Amino acid sequence: MEIRLNNTMTREKEVFRPLEPGEVKLYTCGLTVYNFAHIGNLRAYVFADTLKRVFLFNGYNVNHVMNITDVGHLTDDEDSGEDKMEEGARREGKTVWEIVDFYTQAFFKDMEKLRILLPTTTCRATRHIDDMIEMIKKIESNGFTYIAGGNVYFDTSKLPDYGKLGRLKLDGEKTRSRVESDPYKRNPFDFVLWFTRYKYENHAMQWDSPWGKGFPGWHIECSAMSSRYLGERFDIHTGGIDHIPVHHTNEIAQSEAAFGHEWVNYWLHSEFLVIGEGEKMSKSLGNFITLQTLADSGYDPLDYRYYLLGAHYRKQLAFSLEALDGARNAMRKLRSRISQFAEDSEGSVEINRELLEEFHEAINDDLNTPRALAVLWKVVDSDKLTSMEKLSLINEFDRVFALGLSEIERESVPEDIQELARDRSKARENRQWDRADELRKAISEKGYEILDERDGYSIRKK
Length: 462
Ligand SMILES: [Zn+2]
Fold this sequence. Notes:
The chain contains 16 helices and 18 strands. By secondary structure, it is an alpha/beta fold. Helix 6 (220-230) crosses helix 7.
């Protein structure tokens, strides 16, 4: 079955055609590890993971590379402000290297909790300085650089299609502010490839280079590391939508200037998670919520994953605890229904092709996860399918959803608890409220909780 993806470069939904049959070469811009990831950042990684799982579902091999940014990303994406790693070190009274290790580990823990599959290769910028220097040398010998104020700049005026990804207008208000922020820039959109003179003294991370001791600009790491692990041309590059105008635009400029040909076939971007009045969640705005914040308020990380899957990745998602409550309730209901199916394991094990196809079509249509979830509920609520048929479909769907649904079967509620729950239900039907209450307590003492619902009840471990 064809996979259609919305390509930011062409603004069209295109049929995916891999460079090599059966294989996808995929690159994802990773986190700048100077602080915890907020749940808005994590949306981009759940999206990339869903994309990867869709390819795996379709039988592809996925070669997935993700970087970890640990140098060169300044507090303003356009080369002004302070290096974020230095900011983190100062904030916490630690060395930059301690900050890198701590927040890289925290990021991996978050990914694990969200059941994000590990990339084939995860690469740290500071371990690929030589690759970056080599690439800057190539760009330089192809005539796309100049040196000013001690720094090596990329000359955007040399590239006729600069800004094609975001269809940037290379004039206007923004242009003026960029010139003011850096007097050495010849053109407002030029950017730094290598810093030797940094406006903040004593930058902790420095390396020798043909242009002097210094450190790389932010964008060059992704061009250098992706080509090291995926080659000079690959299939898909993903990231958050905020990367389009600067980071990804500059990655394209550098790579195409170095290689002399088109670089990436499909660009996929996930939209923002917004909070309050459409405000982007951001560390610098101080409104950031982490996965741990949610856990402290009693939400399972997979409730958050379900919540994200409920919206299409290209739609802005307004975050609220009420909306997350909805996702948590849905997950509880799923767990309880699936445990019931597992109890009643009679019936055919054959997979229902029609419903599997309906799910497959949804995910292959630019990752339409809301539609795929609707198919899941259709299966759960069906009165035609046997419990076994339901379970076999749910297990298949969960290869993409990764909501832990296929495990519920194994940890289903013990029979004695089920019996108490059935007795309680009968007591309620007979309006024996005291008896029903006693049974609820008995269930609770055994470590389970009974939740009444419109069309019955569910049981879950406390
Ligand atoms: Zn990147």
